[in-house]
């Protein structure tokens, strides 16, 4: 099944949780171990990528995950080195609030032929960096959206919708102290029909509850699996509110 269809199928019933694994943080075998525990805990898919990915580490990690798991493996590229032929799909992202055209259309043009050659399913994503933004904000030359400027985030999301994108990713930055403000998520929800992905600084079950209530469709967590002593328990705890949400209500 295509990943987009897989998402749609889940979203017709409830919200989605994805686990982000940075291939630079551990050996591929360890990444597989972590992913297996996250899946047992109830995550719906594995994202692989980071702001500074090495292509060889990425390829080996994606390959071992793909061969051993039966949830989608989705690339989350930090640059053109973030593409692997073993993945099921790629978040094909444009960092709309970058100040450098390389991150808006340049890397995309350089990476597109490879994505097409491998036949990787591309999910078009407007990537928006919200304050504080962290490493990705620095690397991506972003002008991070101030946390109280909800309308700015909504305006970017509306532009993304009109440009034909299907997802908007509201990113507070990996390891952020606070996740994206709920009022900003609600404003984006009210302004577009895009699927809303929210990531950065989501650490607790309460965070997930708030973010979903505000209108997020897909929740991404990364840092918590690096810190948890019991990964399966931590993931099952935070996905619990998702499993009881309904889009049919
Ligand atoms: C990073 O949004 C993701 O792009 C995940 O952030 O590491 O804070 O969970 P965390």
UniProtKB/TrEMBL annotation:
It is found in: Cytoplasm. GO terms for biological process: glycerophospholipid biosynthetic process. InterPro entries: GGGP/HepGP_synthase_sf (IPR038597), GGGP_HepGP_synthase (IPR008205), GGGP_synth (IPR010946), IGPS_HisA/HisF (IPR050064). Sn-glycerol 1-phosphate binds at residues 169-175, 200-201, 222-223. Its EC number is 2.5.1.41. Mg(2+) binds at residues 22, 51. Pathway: Membrane lipid metabolism; glycerophospholipid metabolism. Pfam families: PcrB. Its cofactor is Mg(2+). GO terms for cellular component: cytoplasm. It is an enzyme of class 2 (transferase). GO terms for molecular function: imidazoleglycerol-phosphate synthase activity; magnesium ion binding; phosphoglycerol geranylgeranyltransferase activity. SUPFAM superfamilies: FMN-linked oxidoreductases (SSF51395). It catalyses: sn-glycerol 1-phosphate + (2E,6E,10E)-geranylgeranyl diphosphate = sn-3-O-(geranylgeranyl)glycerol 1-phosphate + diphosphate. Keywords: Cytoplasm, Lipid biosynthesis, Lipid metabolism, Magnesium, Metal-binding, Phospholipid biosynthesis, Phospholipid metabolism, Transferase. It comes from the Archaea. Belongs to the GGGP/HepGP synthase family. Group II subfamily. PANTHER family: GERANYLGERANYLGLYCERYL PHOSPHATE SYNTHASE, IMIDAZOLE GLYCEROL PHOSPHATE SYNTHASE SUBUNIT HISF/H IGP SYNTHASE SUBUNIT HISF/H. Prenyltransferase that catalyzes the transfer of the geranylgeranyl moiety of geranylgeranyl diphosphate (GGPP) to the C3 hydroxyl of sn-glycerol-1-phosphate (G1P). This reaction is the first ether-bond-formation step in the biosynthesis of archaeal membrane lipids. This is Geranylgeranylglyceryl phosphate synthase.
